[in-house]
């Protein structure tokens, strides 16, 4: 959705957004400090900045129009104008996903059939 909004705003007139009535998917962005980091204090400062309204508000300046979950951050008007609603998301069953990840990955590759060549294999 985010890329679609950006492309439409950039003038592509052959793109439109379709928002399912049942809700859209969502993702959770993450940041972390790795154990053994050379500069843990600098990493902590980065995390503090990354989780601040000042940082997340920069996203829309870079044509990233996702909804924000940090208090006091400004929701991008562009996302709302295109009909995205942060309250209308798919009702995920995270416990089921966690318990059945291997099965769902296997189902996915089985559905790909012959298209699931070795490019998708992991160690």
3D structure, described in words:
The chain is mainly α and 123 residues long. It folds into two domains: 2-92, no CATH class; 93-123, no CATH class. It is 41% helix and 0% strand. The protein contains seven helices and no strands. The protein has helices at 2-9, 40-50, 53-56, 58-61, 77-81, 94-99, 101-112. It is extended and about 45 Å long.
Work out the helicity level.
Answer: 40-55%
The helix/strand order is HHHHHHH
Cα shape: extended
Helical stretch tally: 7
Gyration radius, rounded:
19 Å
Helix and strand composition category: mainly alpha
SSE layout:
Layout (H helix, E strand, L loop, with lengths): L1 H8 L30 H11 L2 H4 L1 H4 L15 H5 L12 H6 L1 H12 L11
Task: From the structure above, extract its key features.
123 residues; mainly alpha; 2 domains; 7 helices; extended
Summarize the structure.
With 123 residues, the protein is mainly α. The protein has helices at 2-9, 40-50, 53-56, 58-61, 77-81, 94-99, 101-112. The chain has seven helices and no strands.
């Amino acid at each position: 959705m985010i890329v679609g909004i950006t492309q439409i705003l950039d003038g592509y007139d052959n793109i439109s957004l379709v928002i399912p009535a049942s809700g859209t998917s969502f993702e959770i962005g993450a940041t972390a400090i790795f154990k053994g980091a050379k500069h843990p204090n600098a990493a902590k400062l980065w995390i503090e900045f990354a989780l601040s309204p000042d940082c997340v508000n920069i996203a829309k300046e870079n044509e990233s129009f996702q909804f924000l979950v940090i208090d006091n951050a400004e929701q991008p008007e562009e996302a709302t104008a295109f009909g995205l609603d942060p309250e209308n998301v798919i009702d995920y069953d995270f416990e089921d996903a966690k318990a059945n990840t291997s099965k769902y990955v296997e189902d996915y590759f089985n559905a790909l059939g012959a298209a699931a060549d070795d490019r998708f294999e992991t160690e």
